[in-house]
Amino acid sequence: MSLTISAGITLSDDEWTITAIRAQGAGGQNVNKVSSAIHLRFSIQASSLPPIYKERLLALSDSRITNDGDIVIKAQSHRTQEKNRAEAVQRLYDIIIEVTKVKKPRRATKPSLSAKNKRLNTKTIRGKTKTLRKVNPQE
Length: 139
Hints:
Radius of gyration: 27 Å
Shape: elongated
Strand content: 15-25%
Order of helices and strands: EEEEHEHH
Largest sheet: 3 strands, antiparallel
Structural class: alpha+beta
């Protein structure tokens, strides 16, 4: 099973390690016997990704990325190992696709003159309303 990121970038399944572990939480008798949760570990440095993708992945402030540069994903929402494995690989794909997108730079803007005037008028009206609520407005 390989993971196609884009037209020229494909990750083979030997680039990540998958370990079956016991799932946490409630689940009845079955949860204590079956290792249905999946622990996926993907080394960013050792992968065949282009260097720009590696840099962006390592720069992410994601709790799933360790200090050693490994992505660790734990999938345990499904009852079967196969579905959890597919979900873990999908999450890895989502993380990698997230860094491939180039974010549009934010341009600083100013509020318009009418927006400023509207804000100030609203403040004035609100202040007058509060003044009229006082027991003795002359004080």
